[in-house]
Amino acid sequence: MVRLKRIVEALLFALAFWGPAQADEPLSPPWKSYVTLPGAYQLGSSNVLPNEGKSCAFIRSQKDVGVKVHALIYQAVSSKPYRGGKLTLKGFLRTREVQGWAGLWVRAEDAQGRVLSFQNMMDRPVRGSTEWSPYQVGIDLPDQTAKVVFGALLVGQGEVWVDRLSLEGIGPERAIEKLRQKIRSLPEKPTNLGFEE
């Protein structure tokens, strides 16, 4: 009887903490998905433990896949507000049993679709099981940039949740002013050349 009571209490606690589970939903426009191996991943949105709000996106491997297989979610926007400056993609990621790696990515393209600049998190990958944490990647946007494509990806096996993405740009005028401020903050002459201070 005591054991049954503890099981019921545990179930009630789980329901109160996790909330009612709902079926995963497809990605909402304008989000799109791409997979290198059809059927290897499920991509969509979920209301289970988002970082903020009611839902988040996810990428989940469906079977054993190697680290050469990947899936990503993405959308494209005009580069006009950011062209000639710098752009940073920020967002939150949570992972479970990622055996390859997960991360954010952002890419600048010209009018013909040629890649002008690209950055992902391959050099600082998210692996294993992690709680919600903030990440960011940044690129320069040349003057001939026509569009920006951005999103999140999962390489290999595991699951990643994505939430609260944002694009933050520094236009050419602000970028030049920041450079000027940086130059003005430099010392006028070298110091401690003998390493004695």
Describe the structure.
The protein has 197 residues and is α+β, with helices and mostly antiparallel strands. It has one domain: Galactose-binding domain-like (Jelly Rolls, Sandwich). Helix content is 15%, strand content 46%. It contains two helices and nine strands. The chain has helices spanning 2-18, 172-184, and strands at 32-35, 41-46, 56-61, 70-78, 86-109, 115-120, 126-140, 147-155, 159-170. Strands 1, 2, 3, 4, 5, 6, 7, 8 and 9 form a nine-stranded antiparallel β-sheet that branches. A hairpin with a 5-residue loop joins strand 5 and strand 6 (115-120). The longest helix is centred in the first third of the chain and has 17 residues, at 2-18. It is globular, with a radius of gyration of 22 Å.
Helix content: 10-25%
**Structure class:** alpha+beta
N-to-C span:
74 Å
Instruction: Report the order of strands and helices.
Output: HEEEEEEEEEH
How would you summarize this macromolecular structure in one to three sentences?
With 197 residues, the protein is an alpha+beta fold.
Main features:
Jelly Rolls, 15% helix, 197 residues, single chain, 9-stranded antiparallel sheet, alpha+beta
Helices, strands, pairings?
Blueprint: H1 2-18, E1 32-35, E2 41-46, E3 56-61, E4 70-78, E5 86-109, E6 115-120, E7 126-140, E8 147-155, E9 159-170, H2 172-184
Antiparallel strand pairs: 1-4, 2-3, 3-9, 4-8, 5-6, 5-7, 5-8, 5-9
